[in-house]
Amino acid sequence: MVKQAPGVRIDGLTVVYKTTAGELPAVRGVSLELRPGTITGIVGESGSGKSTLALSLLNAVQPPGRISAGSVEIDGLGNVADFTGEKLRKARGRHIGYVFQAAQNSLNPLKTVGKQLLDLGRSHEIEDLRGLVRDAKELLARMGLDGARVLDSHQHELSGGMRQRVGIMLALVLNAHVVVLDEPTTALDMITQSNILKIVREVHAERGLTTMVITHDIGVVAEVADRLAVMYGGRLVEQGPTREVLGNPQHPYTQGLIRAIPRLVGDIDEARALPGRPPTLATVPKQGCVFRERCELRMDVCDSEDPAALAHGSRIVACHAVTVKEHA
Ligand SMILES: Nc1ncnc2c1ncn2[C@@H]1O[C@H](COP(=O)(O)OP(=O)(O)OP(=O)(O)O)[C@@H](O)[C@H]1O
Comparing C-alpha atoms, which of 106, 100, 61 is closest to residue 182? Predict the structure, then answer.
């Protein structure tokens, strides 16, 4: 049995996608620890590699993608990056619960939610299916839905926001202790979103989970995450306790992301969009810092050397300028 709140250690993870220009990394050399019992938020603009990182936690990157280096060690389970076949299928759902970005559309249109719940339970050899249904109804009720009615419904009878909550229920109902939520609340209005995040936090604490929440919306992680990791161009550029990262961002990209959010800076007039666009797989620099094209602090070394992720107090930051400032 997996013990409560396992730790997860992602080490040197690189995930590549095969393109016409060869295999290009969407995630490169990422090392990140999900501490037992914490919620870690992963933020970054579209294309920064967040979903690819989430899929790697379940070893679910599909061709033309593959994990080309690194490991994902989960306490009590082992290195998921090495799992295949039945071992992998069993780990997913039972030990690692997940909602993927497309959760709103991932239900089977031909079966009721209840039937899919039972299929899920049977495929994971759950003996107490009544208990499973009870737990599902309770989770749905907590998220403001009529559980019995939702379980009797087909996908087309549910709104986007309802489907999203069904996705969260399915991620939690098997009692997995590692949970990965990729954009769990994008289809919800602000108030529902806030309520759902509160429930995610409560369930997380009650059940002793280790949770990863992926979002492009810093407001979402500010509400829910204990720790924050910021991705850009497939690299992790900054990580640390959420309050510290948001209150005193070190990496120029994190600073730019935070400046761009009216809700956090308080006044919409002060919010400034980060100039330029994030790189794609084809345009991400092959050497030097991935962020340098948009960086106010760019130095010569940034063109040639990829900055190492270094500890700065409670923070890990990959930026030459931050390292130079620290040693000045
Ligand atoms: N199947 C695929 N084949 C080729 N490239 C892919 C594939 N899936 C993702 N990519 C590329 O990998 C990079 C990272 O994508 P990923 O979806 O992980 O980023 P993301 O930060 O989650 O973005 P979003 O928030 O838009 O989902 C992007 O440049 C994307 O175009």
Answer: 100
Please indicate whether residue 217, judged by its CB atom, sits closer than 6 Å to ligand 1.
no
Give the pLDDT score at 253: 96
- For 67-125, write each residue's pLDDT tens digit: 999 999 999 999 999 999 999 998 988 899 988 765 556 678 899 999 999 999 998 89
Q: Determine the Cα–Cα distance for residues 210 and 177; give it in Å rounded to an integer.
A: 6
Distance 130 CA to ligand 1 centre (A): 39
The alpha carbon of 141 and the centre of ligand 1 are apart by a number of angstroms equal to 34
Which residues 6+ apart lie within 8 Å of 77 measured at CB? 2, 6, 91, 95
Domains of the chain with bracketed CATH: 8-95+176-327 (3.40.50.300)
For ligand 1, whether the C-beta of 65 sits within 6 Å is: yes
The pLDDT tens digits of the residues spanning 285-316 come to: 989 999 999 999 999 999 999 999 999 999 99
* Cα 19 to middle of ligand 1, angstroms: 12
The pTM for the full model equals 0.92
How many angstroms separate the alpha carbon of residue 150 from the centre of ligand 1? 32
Q: How large is the ipTM?
A: 0.97
